[in-house]
Design brief:
Elements: H1 3-34, E1 53-59, H2 66-74, E2 83-89, H3 96-102, E3 106-107, H4 117-130, E4 137-142, E5 146-147, H5 151-160, E6 165-172, H6 179-202, E7 213-216, H7 217-222, H8 233-243, E8 248-258, H9 264-295, H10 299-308, H11 310-329, H12 341-348, H13 350-367, H14 376-387, H15 389-398, H16 415-423
Parallel strand pairs: 1-2, 1-4, 2-3, 6-8
Antiparallel strand pairs: 4-7, 5-8, 6-7
Helix pairs in contact: 1-11, 6-13, 6-14, 8-9, 9-10, 9-15, 11-15, 12-13, 13-14
């Protein structure tokens, strides 16, 4: 044993033990919750259409896709008199506003300069809160979305059952356009089933996922408007709802379709924003969430706090993996688990990691009633997609993204064509 080994032996072994204990607790929590993904969803009782909705769309240079979204919204199985479509163009240099007007949407203009979607929504809800034209609830969409015909009907049923906020089920608009879009499809199916569905099954709050969500007008009044300041306004809104006692329901029958980035570079920039925003949310809300969890025994606060810790946990897990390899290479015994080739391969090997990811991806697709054979590229490359989060999270720990970067949306396709492709 050399001098480095003598130095590393006691401290590194103890550090590995502590890190492993934390990781096991964290993974164990998510594993137990994921088991409830197999529990059937109980839909709300079907109710007569009574609630009036404002459908809110922030748009920046979305001329290629905005008409498809508005047309899908005009085809809702819901009385046209009970909803109105609002488009908020910001920094547009194309025909987004003119196309939205032509398709029948109402236009809201930002009265001040905006740098993020959160700031656009903030100004939009200042208008709604001061307007004489009152709505019962609001649905927020992105300009590249397509919305299934029963979306508003499902949200109305939930409102009639007493739900104050709900997240719809996100599907990919372009699942087969590239390896990256296939990986995103798998990612969102996992999120839908093993995160939101599972939490809803045990009575926890779901997480707002960027777009396709609804909330009652009492929610925005209770929050004093839309007041998010981080790059991930959706996650921050989730935390604010939690801290104000508002549960976000899971609405898997309220389906919408979202365009995914085509290239790895686009995905890299998007996920850097997500990672930076999640770390911002952790820094801003960890004390309030921890206090609410301990003092008020609110399980939603502890659950959201654990979600905000995900970027740090992944980095810690990667560090633990490197430390394990180092100790093994130097033949230092750390007595964490039986140090045999079989045990090592089962617990820390690439084989186990890769095939576990494949199994989880297939399970999510089957539970979501999808044919795994149609998503083989995503299944085979999801491990690499998830592993690429490691350098993203490490980078964002030392150099966070501070500006919102637009991803061009170019997939112009009708809702009818999307539904036909799904039926094949």
């Amino acid at each position: 044993m050399n001098l480095l080994s003598l130095f590393l032996h006691p401290s590194a072994a103890w550090l590995l033990w502590i890190i492993s204990f934390i990781l096991i607790l964290y993974a164990g929590y998510y594993f137990v919750l994921s088991l409830f993904a197999f529990k059937p969803y109980r839909p709300a009782v079907s109710s007569a259409p009574t609630h009036r909705f404002a459908l809110v769309i922030a748009a920046r240079n979305e001329a290629l896709v905005i008409a498809d979204l508005i047309l899908s919204l005009k085809q809702q199985n819901y009385p046209a008199s009970l909803y109105e479509i609002f488009v908020i163009p910001n920094h547009c240099t194309d025909d987004t506003e003119a196309i939205a007007r032509r398709e029948g949407a109402s236009i809201l203009h930002c009265s001040a300069d905006v740098k993020s979607k959160g700031e656009v929504l903030s100004q939009a809800f200042q208008y709604f809160m001061s307007s004489q034209d009152q709505f019962d609830a609001y649905c927020v969409f992105d300009a590249d979305n397509l919305v299934s015909p029963d979306f508003l009907k499902e949200m109305n049923d939930l409102l009639c059952s007493g739900v104050q906020a709900a997240q719809g089920r996100r599907e990919s608009k372009n699942p087969s356009d590239s390896v990256i879009t296939s990986c995103y499809t798998i990612y969102y199916n996992n999120l839908n089933r093993f995160y939101n569905h599972a939490r809803n099954a045990v009575g926890l709050s779901s997480v707002v996922n960027g777009t396709g969500f609804m909330f009652h007008h009492n929610v925005i009044r209770k929050l004093g408007g839309w007041n998010t300041v981080t790059l991930t306004e959706d996650l921050e809104f989730t935390a604010l709802c939690c801290l104000n006692g508002i549960k976000i329901h899971w609405a898997p029958r309220a389906v919408f379709f979202d365009e995914q980035p085509l290239t790895f570079l686009q995905s890299w920039h998007q996920r850097k924003r997500w990672s930076s925003g999640m770390q911002e949310c952790l820094s801003k809300y960890w004390k309030a969430l921890l206090s609410d969890a301990l003092k008020n025994k609110n399980p939603n606060s502890s659950d959201i706090l654990l979600m905000f810790l995900a970027t740090h946990i992944q980095v810690i897990g990667f560090f633990s993996f490197l430390l394990t390899l180092s100790l093994t290479a130097m033949h230092i015994s750390y007595n964490l688990f039986p140090q045999t080739d079989l045990a090592f391969r089962l617990l820390v090997s690439f084989d186990t990691s890769y095939f576990s990811t494949v199994i989880i991806a297939v399970a999510a697709l089957l539970l979501e009633r999808k044919n795994p054979l149609k998503h083989m590229r995503g299944i085979l490359f999801t491990w690499l997609f998830l592993a690429s989060w490691i350098p993203i999270n490490c980078l964002c720990l030392v150099r966070k993204t501070v500006h919102w970067r637009q991803i061009d949306h170019v997939k112009s396709i009708s809702l009818k064509d999307i539904l036909s492709l799904q039926a094949d």
